[in-house]
């Protein structure tokens, strides 16, 4: 490429010489005239530019030698180049230049530049040295320039022939490169795959340990129990294919008390997204309860509570169904947003289905009530209030229908004056019922963890007081809500009692703390209410110190008992009991040289203690344990209040979604229909459709998703998940997983 660029520049220099006079023609004054004075000689030399200027002066021939340098220089440097030549030679040179029409490639840098051809006329070797240095400083490329016109043409033709040869070679080389690279491109994916697999295999082989005594490699790893036979079959198949002379063996070994196996869950393409949501919060410890199965129903249900609308749910479910239908096409999409939607296609589908379900409960189809079974209420001229169609003998009594609407809310509520009050009351109470139920489920799952890990202390001094505290206050609130819903306030017994009217549940809960044992008649729901509330308040107060005090002292007593039994039942201790006491370790004191690791399982079986304690995580300190338990107690007591209030976001977002749907429907669609103009109707419908898709289906759905995510992470999972630290995820050797990780990185 450098030789080609040089030849092209040289060709440009030779081609541009046509702008200069014939440098070889003799000086003529007419025809070789005779100069009579020196001024005439000087005049001739100015206007004629031969290399050897001759003149006859006083009957003699006088010769003046002229030299020339030619080349190309960057066009933008030409003015500075010309000024520096003039100053360096003190005007004893003449510069002629011509701009090239096309950019040329610089032979040194390989970049395309706009250049100009120049020719410098001067006299003397000293001036030549100066001009050469200036040309080098400006990055000019110098080329030979013959004197005679014939020599110029000969050199020009030689340069053209050389350029043709170089161009032919370049074309041939380029064609060969294309053919070679085309063959390589066809094989490149296969080569990349082979190299990728070999690198992954060698990286894994580097993790093996070499047994110098038996001269073999030993690899230790984790494998699901139901896949051990598959590992053996794969290893035998590899031995046969490799024609190995030495067989390979797989031995199962129970993990020691210090080794905690990684966490592994069998998932499929449906449950993958739910497991991903759970593990974004943290990886479960080995054998810890996995909340993902509960999220399959609870997450889309909470979303549906906030996003309940049949029409909006149908759009979301249909969109997700299309992604499921064309999932093979979307699987390899390079668009990040499409990939995120593809991964969550099943949860989006379930969110749409549950939105349809709650939409039927709310009886909303794009904010329009659905009168499927016929309203059970009717208005009469005798009262401003509606009465049941089958219980309206006396309209002024405003009695409810004997047979209510079969599914969800009656459509007449949507247009009533007190609809907002009615829906707010229902959704607020329903949010509290859902929230307390889910938090109680989380506390129950903590009991399952404690029972599996054989932690009776966590059962009796964490789970039990937490259940008592939660249900004494907020469980009782749920009971009041359900009792108020289920009681028939229009029964004959209640109608005859002037004090029998629906009480304010907030006033009951406040009075339970502010005036225990005193229930006003208007706040009475059932007999013995005052005694029950006092009993529940005392139980809640007792549960707080129950959570705080016993566990640290019991852990300290168990530590002392464990230390005593280890010293008593193991005669091969390497350090005395005083040294063991100084380290204050909970279980197998291998790090301090107290007991060999092999005895850990024996001590665990003898004392019936969980391996999670004997495989200690550090020194036992009573002060730190007490402070830690105090923090957990305060966090649970305050969190019980804040978490319950946090579930009110279900009510708030459901109300916001319904009100936004009403506003868009009435202000955009109904208003345009009232105009009666076809153009106005089309414009109004378009604006309503854009607002529905952009605001409700995109922004509102994303908000509901994030709130549902927060409720599961903070209010639900923190009751039982990752209480003793995060676990370690099982990462098997899988080419597909490694390839996906490399692609994402």
If you had to describe this structure to a student in words, what would you say it looks like?
With 745 residues, the chain is of the alpha+beta class. Helices cover 58% and strands 8% of the residues. It is built from 25 helices and 13 strands. The protein has helices at 2-15, 38-47, 78-88, 125-137, 149-205, 228-242, 272-281, 292-306, 310-325, 327-330, 336-343, 345-362, 419-452, 456-486, 492-496, 505-514, 529-548, 550-569, 577-583, 600-607, 611-614, 622-646, 649-675, 678-716, 735-744; strands at residues 34-35, 52-57, 60-65, 67-74, 93-99, 104-105, 112-113, 115-122, 141-143, 209-211, 216-218, 377-380, 383-388. The strands form 5 sheets. Strands 5-8-4-9 form a 4-stranded antiparallel beta sheet, with helices on both faces. A 3-stranded mixed beta sheet has the order 1-2-3. The protein has a two-stranded antiparallel sheet with strand order 6-7. α1 runs antiparallel to α5 (149-205), α13 runs antiparallel to α23 and α14 runs parallel beside α22 (622-646). The longest helix is centred in the first third of the chain and has 57 residues, at 149-205. The chain is extended, with a radius of gyration of 46 Å. The protein starts with a helix and ends with a helix.
């Amino acid at each position: 490429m450098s030789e080609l660029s040089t030849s092209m520049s040289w060709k440009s220099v030779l081609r541009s010489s046509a702008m200069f006079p014939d440098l070889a023609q003799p000086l003529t004054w007419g025809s070789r005239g005779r100069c009579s004075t020196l001024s005439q000689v000087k005049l001739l030399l100015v206007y004629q530019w031969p290399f050897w200027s001759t003149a006859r002066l006083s009957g003699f021939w006088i010769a003046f030698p002229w030299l020339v340098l030619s080349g190309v220089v960057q066009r933008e440097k030409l003015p500075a180049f010309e000024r520096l030549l003039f100053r360096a030679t003190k005007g004893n040179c003449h510069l002629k230049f011509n701009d090239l029409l096309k950019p040329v490639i610089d032979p040194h840098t390989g970049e395309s530049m706009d250049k100009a051809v120049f020719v410098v006329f001067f006299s003397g070797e000293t001036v030549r040295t100066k001009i050469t240095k200036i040309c080098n400083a400006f990055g000019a490329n110098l080329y030979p320039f013959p004197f005679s016109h014939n020599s110029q043409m000969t050199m020009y033709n030689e340069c053209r022939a050389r350029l043709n040869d170089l161009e032919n070679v370049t074309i041939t080389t380029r064609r060969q490169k294309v053919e070679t690279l085309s063959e390589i491109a066809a094989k490149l994916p296969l080569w990349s795959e082979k190299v990728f697999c070999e690198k992954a295999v060698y990286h894994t082989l580097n993790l093996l340990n070499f047994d110098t005594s038996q001269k073999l490699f030993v690899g230790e790893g984790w494998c699901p129990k139901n896949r051990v036979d598959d590992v053996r079959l794969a290893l035998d198949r590899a031995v046969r294919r490799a024609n190995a002379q030495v067989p390979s063996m797989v031995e199962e070994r129970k993990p020691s008390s210090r080794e905690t196996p990684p966490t592994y869950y069998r998932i499929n393409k449906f449950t993958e997204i739910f497991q991903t949501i759970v593990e974004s919060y943290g990886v479960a410890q080995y054998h810890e309860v996995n909340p993902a199965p509960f999220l399959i129903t609870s997450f889309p249900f909470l979303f549906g509570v906030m996003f309940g609308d049949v029409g909006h749910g149908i759009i979301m479910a249909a969109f997700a169904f299309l992604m499921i239908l064309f999932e093979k096409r979307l699987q390899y999409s390079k668009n990040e947003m499409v990939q995120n939607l593809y991964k969550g296609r099943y949860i989006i589908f379930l969110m749409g289905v549950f939105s349809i379900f709650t939409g039927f409960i709310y009886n909303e189809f794009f904010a329009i009530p659905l009168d499927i079974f016929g309203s059970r209420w009717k208005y009469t001229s005798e009262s401003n209030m509606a009465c049941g169609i089958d219980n309206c003998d006396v309209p002024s009594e405003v009695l409810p229908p004997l047979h209510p609407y079969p599914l969800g809310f009656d459509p007449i509520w949507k247009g009533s004056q007190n609809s907002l009050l009615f829906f707010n009351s229902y959704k607020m109470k329903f949010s509290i019922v859902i929230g307390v139920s889910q938090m109680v489920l989380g506390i129950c799952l903590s009991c399952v963890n404690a029972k599996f890990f054989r932690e009776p202390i966590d059962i009796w001094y964490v789970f039990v007081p937490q259940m008592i505290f939660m249900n004494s206050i907020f469980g009782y609130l749920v009971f009041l809500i359900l009792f108020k819903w289920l009681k028939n306030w229009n029964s004959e017994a209640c109608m005859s009692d002037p004090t029998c009217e629906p009480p304010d549940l907030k006033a009951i809960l406040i009075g339970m703390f502010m005036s225990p044992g005193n229930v006003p008649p208007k706040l009475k729901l059932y007999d013995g209410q005052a005694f029950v509330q006092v009993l529940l308040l005392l139980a809640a107060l007792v549960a707080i110190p129950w959570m705080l005090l016993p566990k640290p002292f019991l852990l300290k007593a168990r530590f002392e008992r464990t230390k005593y039994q280890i010293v008593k039942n193991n005669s091969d201790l390497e350090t005395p009991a005083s040294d063991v006491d100084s380290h204050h370790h909970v279980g197998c004191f291998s790090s301090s040289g107290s007991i060999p690791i092999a005895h850990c399982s024996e001590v665990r079986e003898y004392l019936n203690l969980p391996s999670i304690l004997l495989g200690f995580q550090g020194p036992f300190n009573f002060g730190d344990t007490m402070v830690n338990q105090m923090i957990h107690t305060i966090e649970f007591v305050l969190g019980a209040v804040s978490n319950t209030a946090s579930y009110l976001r279900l009510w708030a977002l459901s109300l916001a979604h319904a009100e936004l749907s009403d506003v868009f429907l009435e202000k955009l669609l109904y208003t345009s229909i009232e105009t009666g103009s076809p153009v106005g109707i089309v414009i109004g419908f378009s604006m309503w459709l854009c607002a529905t898709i952009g605001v409700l289906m995109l922004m509102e759905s994303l908000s509901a998703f994030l709130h549902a995510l927060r409720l599961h992470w903070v209010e639900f999972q923190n009751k039982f998940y990752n209480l003793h630290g995060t676990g370690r995820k099982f990462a098997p050797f899988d080419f597909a997983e490694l390839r996906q990780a490399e692609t994402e990185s």
